[in-house]
Write a structure and sequence with these properties.
Layout: H1 7-15, E1 20-23, H2 29-42, E2 47-52, H3 61-76, H4 97-106, E3 110-114, H5 120-128, E4 132-137, H6 140-149, E5 153-157, E6 163-164, H7 179-189, E7 194-197, H8 203-211, E8 216-218, H9 233-239, E9 248-250, E10 258-260, H10 264-269, H11 282-296, H12 319-332
Parallel strand pairs: 1-2, 2-3, 3-4, 4-5, 5-7, 7-8
Antiparallel strand pairs: 6-10, 9-10
Helix pairs in contact: 1-2, 2-4, 3-11, 8-12
Length: about 325
Amino acid sequence: MAGVSTPEMAAAVSNAGALGSLGVGATNAAGAREMITRFRHRSKRSLNVNVFCHTPARANRELEERWIARLRPEFARFGASPPTSLREIYRSFVEDDEMLTMLIAERPKVVSFHFGFPPRERIEALRRAGIVLLASATSLDEARTIVAAGVDAIVAQGYEAGGHRGVFDPAAEDARLGTFALTRVLVRSLNRPVIAAGGIMDGAGISAAMELGASAAQLGTAFVTCDESQADFGYRAAMKSDAAHHTIMTSAISGRPARCLANHFTALGKTIAPTDIPDYPIAYDAGKALHAAAKGKGDPLFGAQWAGQGAPLARAMPAADLVALLRREMAES
């Protein structure tokens, strides 16, 4: 939910009795601290802070120049030019000392990892600070390495989940397990709490995950259209359109596989081999620039409109009302 989640939304969710989350993978330590402070001005309850643990990008000037050239005609459609060079716009938590220091000082109740997990010394430092640790897994093998690293609970991210696929190695073969199959495999195989994530949009879905042995469910797409979300008008409009019924996994926007509403960028991505795309998040530098150029001319369909396969089931309302509705639906299911 980095880029969509807000302190206001996280606080509303936590105050309503769930666990609000802040995605800070798209900001630095100072920005993350400011978000945590804003949350705490609105809530005294628990908070989950999510960080990205991707392998730091490997610059490849030749590949990046080809990528810029490939996108140049798309920029030209909007009277713009692409960046002359690309940079690594987000720093991975695996090497971000400032983010680690900030989290130890601020001590949110929960820190969760995506794209893998950090070195053991960072995990131990967070645990010594009394922080509960979660990590996403898309397979049993990934989950087993999470357990061995000493993480407290596993987020079972199914293939239907919106946003970035949490695979540790995006170049490796992906079994593409669905949420419920993966949840059940992890529950049966591991002695760790499992949190089901992906395609869950209502109380019935939460109850179904719990019936399969999940200790909790994690919802993201369900909150994209909430009042406190940072999703812009174009994103919200797309969530209400036919695009919500046709989400697509693409690497073209950011450099890593991510599920997005069908839009102009996902259509472009269908024609491009993953090996032709620079590393995440270097590719994202170009992706964000193209979105800005298109949006400036009134076209919102080059945005990173991340959403899971449950997107057509989203309900637009205040986040606290959605949590209350989910609770009622669980009781009725």
